[in-house]
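Fold this: Phage tail protein
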Amino acid sequence: MVSALMTKGVSLQLTPMQIPDSIAQSGSDVGIEKNAVSQSEIVVHPGELCRVALELKNWESQAQQLTLKLDGTFPLEWCKTEAEPQRIAPLEQGSTHLVTVEVPAKKSWYTDLWFRVPQAFFEDQEVLSTHSVQHLELNFRGCLSVCPTSESEATRRSPTGLRPSPIEQSSFELYVRPRSTYTTFLPTVYQEIDVIHRFVKIFEEAFDPVVNSFSSMWANLDPLTAPQSLLPFLAHWVDWPLDAQLSLTQQRRLIRRAVEIYRSRGTRKGLRFYLHLYTGLPLDEEMSREEDKSISITEPSGQGCLLGVAQMGVDTVLGGGKAYHFEVRLRCEPDYPIDEQLVRRIIEQEKPAFCTYDLWIEHR
């Protein structure tokens, strides 16, 4: 859809870059002169940018300084241009200068017009209060005019203030339509009818909240993303007791990994994993030496009494050590927050009942 007109050595052409999904019916003919040979149809969806390519051709053998002026039945702030606008006052109320440019002889000047309708166009209470829903304006008309800059300057300075006749005009239809995805499920012949687009959009607006709720249902069942009010319900699912002493983030992590903790309960791996979820200290699984890990769980035992090797009181214990005894060492930064009483309660809960332990919290 291209609108073009060539008179007096200047031609103006508008080319919408988006192909409309359907052909709308024009509904407003107020305030725009019908001097153009053909019209462009521009469909704009609220909240989305719509690009229209503009070409201004100078057919004369000398350069011309021209001013582009926009008139329309729509709010003119909906339209912007890529070119740097000149600080020129509007010729009259309801019209505005877009840009003043010098076009070389036998050359074209290109720019883009960008149309953007506010995201809340259909929900705007101010619009709904001034127009009844049955008469909400969706179809608008616009016109781009080309005037010689010198004539425009003379008109603004003249006491009569008469408007100079433009040497070129290109009119267009601007349709505001909601974006609809349901129409893609219709036969092609119905996808090209504007009234069907708007009719189907009614059902889309009604069903979308329900569809979106089902699409995001997984987030309500994941302890990491579920609302706080659902955490007791999710904890009950895995029989995990909520502890008020734990932070909300710690509770979420523990509920999510509760089944893994159950599988390893009573083992070194299970205790280290539980302490990792509570404290946030790394597991350091890539380290081979247990003594070097941030969460170290060891059983104190020597190599036995080897003649010529063992040192009394250093690596040899007379009478043997404690049976079923282990040591837990947590290595962290000096200001790292760790509740020792809570750590002891976790160890008591996870260790076998017949085992004893020692706990050290070491600062690096």
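The two ends are 72 Å apart (CA to CA). The longest helix spans residues 194-215.
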